[in-house]
Amino acid sequence: MQLSEQELIRREKLEKLRALGINPYPAALYPLNATSASIKSNYEEGKQVIVAGRLMSRRIQGKASFAELQDSSGRIQVYFNRDEICTGEDKTFYNEVYKKLLDIGDIIGIEGYLFTTQVGEKTIMVKKFTMLSKSLRPLPLPKKDAEGNVYDEFNDPELRYRQRYVDLVVNPKVKETFIKRTKITNSIREFYNSKGYLEVETPILQPIPGGATARPFLTHHNALNMPLYLRIANELYLKRLIVGGFDGVYEFSKDFRNEGMDRTHNPEFTVMELYVAYKDYNWMMDTTEKLLEKIAMDANGTTLVTVGKHEIEFKAPYARIPILEAIKIHTGFDVAGMPEDELRETAKKLGIEVDDTMGIGKLIDEIFGEKCEHHYVQPTFITDYPKEMSPLTKEHRNNPALTERFELMVNGKELANAYSELNDPIDQRERFEEQLKLSEKGDDEAMFIDQDFLRALEYGMPPTSGIGIGIDRLVMLMTNNASIQEVLFFPQMRPEKQPLQLSDSEKVIFEILKTEKKMELDILKTKADLSNKAWDKGIKGITKHQLAKIYKDGDVLFVEILS
């Protein structure tokens, strides 16, 4: 492992601490009785406190020093005075340990009392400090110049997402996003629990990837010697619970879809699904409006939320527009009842890529997604989807070609999907069989037939309404974040590129080339001064790693470094 100069110095300090009899990673409980936030909100001059956190800055002035300590609730100023800490003749603990062996980023415990400085800053006078964890890597802290300009910020997305632990330490706003995420999920739980609905858990590993149209992840269970799928939805299991006699169940579900990644999609994401017996999609629209009003108030203290350049109003009521009407409004084409071939040609006229595997449902979905969806910034229920798009949805009571389904659009994206649930087992079987035909045509997102779910419906499921709400997208809206990666602690990323490890002979050759850029092969060999065996291995390694290339110019072989 290649260590930087700073990392080497910190490791030396670690050994010096141990030599002084100080354990840099003690095991004993540290008896906290306050936090930076509780001190500031309930400040009492002279009060004795015990706090702990990271040392984030300090200004040493001889025998005194002001510093900042950061804990889970914020930062507070602390004052180190040599004679307060070292009351006897031996000043080692201040002069050596504090001044020389402590670093920014170290986690320390502090015992002391509160006082207010001459400029009015609430501060802890340190009477005793304890090393709790030595930081072996320097934090990438932003710096300010004399004019107040900030530079060297830790703001590269690749590094921030990969090293979220550092991001949370040095960028306080990031932590606020995740605190607000918990407020949002707690708000949902409070709303549903107050109605008597039961929070449940259903399987993540499933024999059939049911409940949605998506490409699943496939794995294998060794003990059972059978394939299993990571769930793409938990819908069919929650409906089984409605069959079993629960009137209302909900689940915060980790779902997995083996599809593309972008600013609004991650292969692992969180959905909240709710199913309530004896309700329909009209009731669900009313309920969803009330839920989102509550979430906005709990998270932000207002129903008017800033999202990018838009002000989005979550106060009810929301507009309700049938999907076929939306397509007609935004494209000029009336696709209601249009045959599949004509619909495919219409999509082509609109500049939408299509193929022969796409049925009526997929074609309408593509047209709406490409030409309509982005228009709906304010919360809007898009309703009454064609039957081909909704294989789990009850037929519309007034039009057998449609279903009782809505999607909630906010800021040009789908936030929720809901139905009056299909509870006719014969109709459901026919819908599944239509999906099977699409699969045979090559649609790898078509639904599987779940025979056990059909068996459950045959025992009888009461009229039911269900909804799925994308929690990650909801948090994006409520925290004004444009990327899903900003609201996931640890978003999925490509493998980290490992630094290239060169052999000794490769290093010798490469260092010469870094200076010369290009030289004759024979001159490079002479200058490297390696044995024939070491030279052969070294030059082969350099070209294999694509650090340099060998080429012929006339009768002379040259080696040139590759940038």
From TrEMBL:
Binding site for Mg(2+) 1: E407, E414
Subcellular location: Cytoplasm
UniProt GO MF annotations: ATP binding; lysine-tRNA ligase activity; magnesium ion binding; tRNA binding
Catalytic reaction annotation: tRNA(Lys) + L-lysine + ATP = L-lysyl-tRNA(Lys) + AMP + diphosphate
Entry cofactors: Mg(2+)
Aminoacyl-transfer RNA synthetases class-II family profile domain mapped to chain residues: 181-495
Domain of life: Bacteria
Main location, first listed in the record: cytoplasm
GO biological process: lysyl-tRNA aminoacylation
EC number: 6.1.1.6
Keywords: Aminoacyl-tRNA synthetase, ATP-binding, Cytoplasm, Ligase, Magnesium, Metal-binding, Nucleotide-binding, Protein biosynthesis
CDD domains in UniProt: LysRS_core, LysRS_N
Family: Belongs to the class-II aminoacyl-tRNA synthetase family.
Protein name: Lysine--tRNA ligase
Organism: Maribacter orientalis
